């Protein structure tokens, strides 16, 4: 009895001494312990996400993948799995589990590591505040921090910190991100087997993850399921079913809903400039761009299809490579039959082959007379019929191809590694990676919102964004701006300019400068409208000479072009200036919107991780006068104004209640864009560009048509546009617009070289014949047409309305003078009020040519 009392006394003394020692240790370490108050208002580091205007995810930027979850979003089975595996007494202990700690200490003393020392609270303390070094000091600090965390937070709050913070491999932090990375699903969509895999990862995320080590992951999953069963969380049947399920994990990126990598990178760079690197990748910003899924998808498809068509017109450059196999003689219809390739050889070859867009690698496994059999990456076999092969004339150079193939063996051989694409009819077509590049960009001329942008065939192939980074010679795309300057200096659409060769001595070079039309035909005296519609080079030069280089450059800079990009010589009229597609589109927007310079923008709004709008675009609008939103009583009235088609699109796309106390967001006073040309000037140039598509003077000039005539396939009179081809066809352009959308298409080589025409085999002559040079209408316009067919599909026809001070009078087609005739020799033409011709045509006017500056005129709409 005495001994028991002594034992209790000694124990009490030891307990008191231990408590004093622990408290003394706590006091000595208190100043070194980090504050855990920050856990009360924790801000999770989440990546930047970029969306389309209609809310589809385009891309995600940031090293750490995290999808923060609330307790309500976490499946109960995941909570059960974590408790059973990591801390089965979590809701009973005070941060440190004495039973688990005792078991761990006893195990150490006995030389056995039984685990169980770290509770979920202790893991939270370690993950947020401590390193992973294995020392007694760190363990003691971990215990003290755990006590503090337990006194500060509820059990559920601690559990959620653990669920959202824990590192789970492949740069995923938290179980929300891990569900996406390993299974491509929301956490709520996972099966018990998948949840058990994730619950087993905290022990060793690198060695137990199901992608790197599926066998270890399966063994660890069995442990998790066993503990869940023993703890009563799951039934025997659930246990066995999940235990026997296959490991289905594979690497998933962010669930991209819209493929627009060039747009994503543009938005990414804008956010970096605005907020800096630290905030961009950690604050969980959601960036909503101005592009829509419909138009962005259409733009990408149009560009890709056009590049493939251009590339295939110039011949087949052969397979990527070939799996070398021994060839043996065979009595089969094919003269030679190689030995069979092993599946391992095919699989290895396909796994190392690069591929882009819809072009996927395949291996030729059989060659028949008019078809080939191929094997794809998924071990699926398919057949390429002759329709998918016949195009593949041998490539010799950019302007020459070999004779058309007659059999499949003229094109491919057994073991060739090729690229193929699947057609809409589910047949396959032989393909190849285009060597040319392209860009397409579309804007709203009302406010500069970028509606679609594609900077190349494949972002994977090249991150160089040709929409914003490629300064290329613009060719005849510059002419509308030259003609606009001419209208400001006395010319009208009816002015006559001599379409005749120019021979001009150049003192600087010591040679004669001879600008030529393309094609090299000349019509003599020609009205300005027709000169622009037919893209007459010598007329553009004569106009520039008449108004002067300095005046022309000054006028062109008003459209947003940098003066340093504009040559100070007469080659400017032929398009020697180098501009980006975005700059060209911005310039054309001025004609479409009636004379205003708008600034292109891509980001509509930015939200923080709480869904609060921290930035809202407020672009300058092409309106005169502009109605202020402050004049409207309700948000509904503002929305009605937007729906009317005015330039306020998306200005109030978010509820006013979302906008917080950011001064930048408090006022939505409408800003007016700068007027740079008159509405009359813009209208007249638009009329001439409409003639470039729809033509004019049919009866007076049989067979005449504008350079953009192919766009008539859209069957819309409310479009206008201009082709552009540079010297030696190194660049091809088409820019065109309707009232509410402007689109520019460009094609060329990144290392500028000629885009020469392909040759065509003439069966009658039995030889090749060249088709001539590639040009804007043939090489760039098809992409524009394909895109605009989608962009305008649901848009009503909106005619280009003449502004005030525009009148229409009947003129003589040949001279541009007034006429009283109403036959085929006359037509109505638009003029600016005050510049209407005053002289009537005489009977004999064949020799009358009006030089630039002799006659002032104006304009008005014909259709």
From TrEMBL:
GO terms for molecular function: penicillin binding; peptidoglycan glycosyltransferase activity; serine-type D-Ala-D-Ala carboxypeptidase activity. SUPFAM superfamilies: beta-lactamase/transpeptidase-like, Lysozyme-like. It is found in: Cell inner membrane. Residues 439-764 form the Penicillin-binding protein transpeptidase domain. One of its GO terms (biological process) is regulation of cell shape. The chain crosses the membrane at residues 7-26. It is a single-pass type II membrane protein. Its EC number is 2.4.99.28, 3.4.16.4. One of its GO terms (cellular component) is outer membrane-bounded periplasmic space. It comes from the Bacteria. Residues 316-435 form the Penicillin-binding protein OB-like domain. Pfam families: PCB_OB, Transgly, Transpeptidase. Keywords: Antibiotic resistance, Carboxypeptidase, Cell inner membrane, Cell membrane, Cell shape, Cell wall biogenesis/degradation, Glycosyltransferase, Hydrolase, Membrane, Multifunctional enzyme, Peptidoglycan synthesis, Protease, Signal-anchor, Transferase, Transmembrane, Transmembrane helix. Its main location: membrane. Pathway: Glycan biosynthesis; Cell wall biogenesis; peptidoglycan biosynthesis. Residues 56-228 form the Glycosyl transferase family domain. It catalyses: [GlcNAc-(1->4)-Mur2Ac(oyl-L-Ala-gamma-D-Glu-L-Lys-D-Ala-D-Ala)](n)-di-trans,octa-cis-undecaprenyl diphosphate + beta-D-GlcNAc-(1->4)-Mur2Ac(oyl-L-Ala-gamma-D-Glu-L-Lys-D-Ala-D-Ala)-di-trans,octa-cis-undecaprenyl diphosphate = [GlcNAc-(1->4)-Mur2Ac(oyl-L-Ala-gamma-D-Glu-L-Lys-D-Ala-D-Ala)](n+1)-di-trans,octa-cis-undecaprenyl diphosphate + di-trans,octa-cis-undecaprenyl diphosphate + H(+); Preferential cleavage: (Ac)2-L-Lys-D-Ala-|-D-Ala. Also transpeptidation of peptidyl-alanyl moieties that are N-acyl substituents of D-alanine. PANTHER family: BINDING PROTEIN TRANSPEPTIDASE, PUTATIVE-RELATED, PENICILLIN-BINDING PROTEIN 1A. Cell wall formation. Synthesis of cross-linked peptidoglycan from the lipid intermediates. The enzyme has a penicillin-insensitive transglycosylase N-terminal domain (formation of linear glycan strands) and a penicillin-sensitive transpeptidase C-terminal domain (cross-linking of the peptide subunits). In the N-terminal section; belongs to the glycosyltransferase 51 family. In the C-terminal section; belongs to the transpeptidase family. This is Penicillin-binding protein 1A.
